[in-house]
Amino acid sequence: MAFVAYSVRDVPKAREFYRDVMGLTEGESVGDHWVEFQIGAATFGIGNGEPLGIPPGSSFAATFEVDDVAAERERLLGRGIAVTDVNDFPNCYSAFVTDPEGNRFGIHQLKSK
């Protein structure tokens, strides 16, 4: 996989959200129209996809691993971010977050074996 990307209208605002709120580390390609974040060996990008036929706020593909889903959910709720309840699956916990543009992503925690 080359990267996962979300379409946003306001790239600087989305950059701030994913960098400052979600704690992602910016990669090498950062600008006013496209920003990449490095997550391990993967790349997560944000940019305005409208010219490509990808409406902002329509993405749902990324899920970020966290140490404690419940604690991360509470932290995000405390910042006024929309987050679902935590789901309890056989091998993991997850919740779903909506970014300021309306894109949704997951936060995920594997259960210990």
Secondary structure layout:
Elements: E1 4-7, H1 11-21, E2 25-30, E3 34-39, E4 42-47, E5 63-65, H2 69-78, E6 82-83, E7 87-88, E8 92-98, E9 104-110
Parallel strand pairs: 1-4, 5-9
Antiparallel strand pairs: 2-3, 3-4, 6-8, 7-8, 8-9
Polypeptide structure, described:
The chain is of the alpha+beta class. The protein has one domain (4-47, 60-110): 2,3-Dihydroxybiphenyl 1,2-Dioxygenase, domain 1, CATH 3.10.180. It has 2 helices and 9 strands, in the order E-H-E-E-E-E-H-E-E-E-E. Strands 5, 6, 7, 8 and 9 form a 5-stranded mixed β-sheet that branches. A 4-stranded mixed β-sheet has the order 1-4-3-2, covered by helices on one side. The two termini are 28 Å apart. The mean pLDDT is 92.
Largest sheet: 5 strands, mixed
The CATH topology comes to 2,3-Dihydroxybiphenyl 1,2-Dioxygenase, domain 1
The structural class is: alpha+beta
Beta-strand portion reads 35-45%
Gross morphology is: globular
